[in-house]
Amino acid sequence: MMGECYMEEWIKKIREAGIVGAGGAGFPAYAKYNAHVDTFIANGAECEPLLNTDQAIMMRHPQEVVMALETVGKSMGAKNIYIAIKQKHQECIEKIDGAIKNLSASVIIYPLRDYYPAGDEFMLTYEVTRRVIPPAGIPLNVGVCVANVGTLYNAYNAIFNEEPVTYKYVTVNGEVGSPGVICVPIGTTLRDCIERVGGATLKDFSVIVGGPMMGRIYPDGKEALDLPVRKTTGGVIVLPVDHPLIFKKTIPESVAVKRARAACIQCRYCSDMCPRNLLGHQLYPHLVMRTVSNVENAADMRMTLLCSECNVCELYACPMGINPRTMNSVFKSKLREAGVRYDYSGYLLKVNDMIDYRRVPVYRLVMRLNLDRYSQDVKYYGTVEDIKSVKIMLRDGPGRTARPIVAQGDEVLKGQKIADVDDDALGVPVHASMAGTVTQITDEYITIENTGVKK
């Protein structure tokens, strides 16, 4: 096992490189990896439909992913090191397998069935280890660390090349000229991303940033065009404004409450198919719906704090087309505002005997979402360099917002640190993703214009 000194060295490099979880949550990687575990899992599940981002990384950088996986895993004390990939992605499996053999790495490929949400770290931990993460817990509670393959690729660049995070792989899919995966400088606008794949094919369109199940919806897609690619951005999906998924995900909260009171038939499908419930967590969306319509039989709403908002209940399970996830979210938000936390009492976590039969097949989910016309293999466009300007956010997840250390008018080089955090604060520095001139600094972002500064 690698020594503590070496572990401290690469953890420092990872922090200095500004690495956060690339899979969406954005938790600072150095803090996550500063622990000891017996099992380390690289998450290559590509959980959301229509996204090919993780596949592109594994196809193009298999050796880098495997080297980082083994380095980080062994340093954390892991005796079992896995990379989880959906079995249907045979090309990815072959690439990773080849890298494992070339490097003589102690890494095991774990093939996954094609279900949603296979990439959820609670489900993935159970799938690979048969351990159940406690309610409101994290994988470290059961001796496991889960890391996205994109995060590991960034870790490789930090550990072995001392390169900061300046690029992001992004899938652009839906109503665009030629859907694909592009690698763009952090801070590139969504407008530039969409134009690089042929532009939107519709005059009026909506945009989902992220995946169709958990991504953020912009009903008027034009409002999203100037948003920047962040370290956590994995996908940009362009859909017609009247697409059923857009309608479903933009129902006002007040309407969702009325529908819950009027139309819930208490069938339990939302609870029976809930991924957390299947793992034995006491989360019952049907009881939340019952409380909405009948407060006299109110359930303990602290259970809503366990909801991952995966949307299985709302977008797949409910036969009435109403909104259990929205109701969960309403109660959860109010509880958090009140400072309420979920206190796990230690109740027995019994995995549902039907778990293998209640998982949601991705192909059926795609059809249910009316997205089957967009479910396809997409091309890889390569790395985009000729971007005119970038807007780089100063925080991409939990932790302290980075403090700008450059001034307006400064010329910066690609990879140069432009914002930093105190050593004792949770957070990571931010780096210029292109050479140019700093044209704007706010409390939230720094804008850099490409003015011909040499790299």
Automatic annotation (TrEMBL):
Q: In terms of domain of life, where is this protein from?
A: Bacteria
4Fe-4S ferredoxin-type domain ranges (all copies): 253-284
InterPro entries linked to this entry: 4Fe4S_Fe-S-bd, 4Fe4S_Fe_S_CS, Ion_transpt_RnfC/RsxC, Nuo51_FMN-bd, Nuo51_FMN-bd_sf, PduS, RnfC_N, Single_hybrid_motif
Q: Name one GO molecular function term.
A: 4 iron, 4 sulfur cluster binding
SUPFAM superfamilies found in the cross-reference section: alpha-helical ferredoxin, Nqo1 FMN-binding domain-like, Nqo1 middle domain-like, Single hybrid motif
The record's GO CC annotations read: membrane
Output the PANTHER family linked to this UniProt entry: ION-TRANSLOCATING OXIDOREDUCTASE COMPLEX SUBUNIT C
From the Swiss-Prot or TrEMBL record, give the protein name: Proton-conducting membrane transporter
